[in-house]
């Protein structure tokens, strides 16, 4: 008996996709995602910091990078968790949070507006 793919349940999160959002904003493409996939997360972060530093004249002094890393990482993981699941309950389980804590973090990091369509 062949394995059957489960029908995806409906939920608010099903329309959230970081890749789709970035493609609509012309910030990503198939080629870019293939190249990005070949880099480690550490390489991507280091490259992003190097590029930001070049724009700032090779000076990122005074920015508390080390202390803000946990916040940056939690924001990214939260957005991924929401986009990778169908419902907020499933996202909470996926991220190891209770639903109340997830709701507070979604408001804090303004996740829904990140995924919302902006009318320009």
Characterization of the model:
The protein is mainly alpha-helical and 120 residues long. The chain has one domain (14-115). 61% of the residues lie in helices and 0% in strands. The protein has 7 helices and no strands. Helix 4 crosses helix 5 (88-95) and helix 5 packs across helix 6. The longest helix has 20 residues, at 65-84. It is globular.
In percent, how helical is the residue content?
55-70%
Total individual domains:
1
Low-confidence stretches: none
Give, in order, the helices and strands. Answer: HHHHHHH
Class from secondary-structure proportions: mainly alpha
Compute the separation of the termini in Å: 50 Å
**Proportion of residues in extended strands:** under 5%
Q: Tell the overall outline.
A: globular
What's the tally of helices?
Answer: 7
Rg, please?
A: 17 Å
Question: Key features?
Answer:
120 residues, mainly alpha
Summarize the structure.
With 120 residues, the chain is an all-alpha fold. The protein has one domain. The chain has helices spanning 18-24, 30-37, 41-55, 65-84, 88-95, 99-108, 111-115.
List the helices and strands and how they pair.
Blueprint: H1 18-24, H2 30-37, H3 41-55, H4 65-84, H5 88-95, H6 99-108, H7 111-115
Helix pairs in contact: 4-5, 5-6
